[in-house]
Amino acid sequence: MILQLQEATDYIQQRIENFAPEFGIILGTGLGALVNELEVNHTISYDEIPYFPVSTVESHSGKLIFGLLAGRRVVVMQGRFHYYEGYSMEQVVFPVRVMRLLGVQKLFVSNAAGGLNPDFTTSELMIITDHINLQPSNPLIGKNLDELGLRFPDMSDVYDEHMVREAMVIGDDLGITLQEGVYVSVPGPMLETPAEYRYLRVIGADAVGMSTVPEVIAARHMGMPVFAVSVITDMCTPDRLKKVKLADILEAAAIAEPRMTALIAELIRRS
Ligand code: HPA
């Protein structure tokens, strides 16, 4: 695995020449417009990169985009990999590991999520302060990649407290309402039953989605500070639960997207 990661990294490095990204950004469902704010230097399709998985979800386009955001060098994953697509957990986190090998110092992650906390509203942003992993596996199962990190990485402070605090200040400064809470990651691809939503709330989650946690685990394994934000695309409390279609999720994500982009860009500017 380490050789495959190295080969992918070497290929990208040769394509981007001396452009060493400081920050990595993974964009969630319906949240790809952040790339319009980039001063783009290089774009590489996933299918050009050795060993890179290729995205299968229609709402994601698969590209690594290198450029400047708020004057800082970033690499953006436009389109991510989900376990429900049939990838192994190692494939899901392959790009995050490559980002680290490219020299990325901090990871920013976004996702679309269902709201479990009754105080939330559709299209609000929730800063993730902790998570619960209900995916059936995780990317650290198997032989430890000692070159990347420890066999038993600590998970007592997964989401960088300093960045969470800074984000709350930015929220005030820019007039963006920010919720904070716990994200639970489920395998999907089906949405949850009413009983499952009640269960997820009881175990302590504020939002539910099908991504993020595998990538975050891989990032923390490698010691990368992480900032993650959910866009609440549908409310899943017993009184507000409705049938949802992908189109509804994309519409709610589109409404929140400019706020999410402003928040991440400003956090990067101040990093
Ligand atoms: N459940 C799981 N994932 C989701 C949801 C949900 O309700 N909404 C958006 N992603």
TrEMBL record:
Residue span(s) of domain Nucleoside phosphorylase: 23-269
Gene3D superfamilies, A to Z: Nucleoside phosphorylase domain
Coiled-coil spans in chain: none
InterPro entries found in the cross-reference section: Nucleoside_phosphorylase_d (IPR000845), Nucleoside_phosphorylase_sf (IPR035994), Pur_Nuc_Pase_Ino/Guo-sp (IPR011270), Purine_phosphorylase (IPR011268), Purine_phosphorylase-2_CS (IPR018099)
GO molecular function per UniProt: purine-nucleoside phosphorylase activity
GO biological process per UniProt: nucleoside metabolic process
Pfam family, one: PNP_UDP_1
GO CC annotations on file: cytoplasm
Signal peptide range in chain numbering: none
NCBIfam families documented for this protein: PNPH, PNPH-PUNA-XAPA, PRK08202.1
PANTHER family the UniProt entry points to: METHYLTHIOADENOSINE/PURINE NUCLEOSIDE PHOSPHORYLASE (PTHR11904), PURINE NUCLEOSIDE PHOSPHORYLASE-RELATED (PTHR11904:SF9)
Biological function: The purine nucleoside phosphorylases catalyze the phosphorolytic breakdown of the N-glycosidic bond in the beta-(deoxy)ribonucleoside molecules, with the formation of the corresponding free purine bases and pentose-1-phosphate.
Family statement: Belongs to the PNP/MTAP phosphorylase family.
Summary of subunit composition and partner proteins: Homotrimer.
Protein name according to UniProt: Purine nucleoside phosphorylase
